[in-house]
Amino acid sequence: MNQISISARIGNETFEHPFVNAAGVFDETKQEMNQILNSEAGGVTTKSATLKPRTGNSKPRYANTELGSINSMGLPNQGLTYYLDYIEHNQIDKPIDLSISGTSIGDDIAALKAIQKSNFNGLCELNLSCPNVVGKPQIGYDFAAIAAAMKAVFSFYTKPLGVKLPPYFDLQQYDAVSKILNQYPLTYINTINSVGNGLVVDADTESAVIKPKGGFGGIGGTYVKPIALANVRAFRQRLNPDIKIIGTGGVSTGKDAFELILCGADIVEVGTALQKEGPEIFARLDSELTNLMIHKGYHQLSDFRGKLRDNQD
């Protein structure tokens, strides 16, 4: 039997394993990020960093559900300087993706200018899609704002950059966003963020299960996998081939990951399932994906990446 490879490359980074944590899970502190790096994950994504530390929304702000989770975290994080310091003063032998998410385009620009001046040359992810900052709309649903942000960012930023996108639901949305992004030297997109402003009710207490925003929050987990698959597929069909895709949403098994890669993802991120199971999940996902590839006769991810067939029946 030939050697099975599950490695993938995004920008200047090689992921020996195609699974990483989704921003916001096991990544707020140095200790948590070290847990990810010491697992079978291919790398680590930092908590989405703002210019200054944030405590986030009031608690309870996260709840597990039977088929996933709901959260309204509100970007709790240690601040950009904390994550840059962690990167620059630790020997890290796996890729690290520095996620940033300002509460305004101005803050995003300021953060990216700081990163541009730093010694960090790895992947950076601009979050255009956080649905849980009270009073702040998602940039990702305002196409004019996306265009303005990309123009401003690429007027000075020269390092590898990706954008995290919200879920889209209409073909015209995929067309419009792809038309904007294809104009710029993006390294990758990350799709999808949680499905914003869902509501989970506790029938026993007759109340919402989380506190912020009257109980409205981002939905993740098994619920959202069909939406994630659709977004990965639609963007792979529309984006320039050199723009890679990180597929996120509903991954709890190797088969889930296989399906996202089949739709066009280069690597996948794990959120809700990681929160529930812990970093040990990465070894299981590696094994399940590898075994599925062996069963199907595939030797590397490129053998099936983006090769989803239409149903001809």
Automatic annotation (TrEMBL):
Pathway of this protein?
Pyrimidine metabolism; UMP biosynthesis via de novo pathway
Oxidoreductase listed as a keyword:
yes
User: Which residues does FMN bind?
Assistant: 47-48, 127, 164, 192, 221, 249-250, 271-272
Domain called Dihydroorotate dehydrogenase catalytic: residue spans: 8-293
Record's subcellular location: Cytoplasm
One Pfam family assigned to this protein is DHO_dh
- Residue numbers annotated as active site: 130
- Asked if the Swiss-Prot or TrEMBL record annotates the protein with the keyword Magnesium, the reply is no
Q: Which GO terms describe its molecular function?
A: dihydroorotate dehydrogenase (fumarate) activity
Which keywords, in A-to-Z order, does the entry hold?
Cytoplasm, Flavoprotein, FMN, Oxidoreductase, Pyrimidine biosynthesis
Which residues does the annotated region (Disordered) include? 44-63
Q: Which CDD domains match?
A: DHOD_1A_like (cd04741)
Q: EC?
A: 1.3.-.-
Read off the HAMAP family from this record.
DHO_dh_type1
Family of this protein: Belongs to the dihydroorotate dehydrogenase family. Type 1 subfamily.
What the protein does comes down to:
Catalyzes the conversion of dihydroorotate to orotate.
Q: What is this protein called?
A: Dihydroorotate dehydrogenase
* Organism name: Fructilactobacillus fructivorans
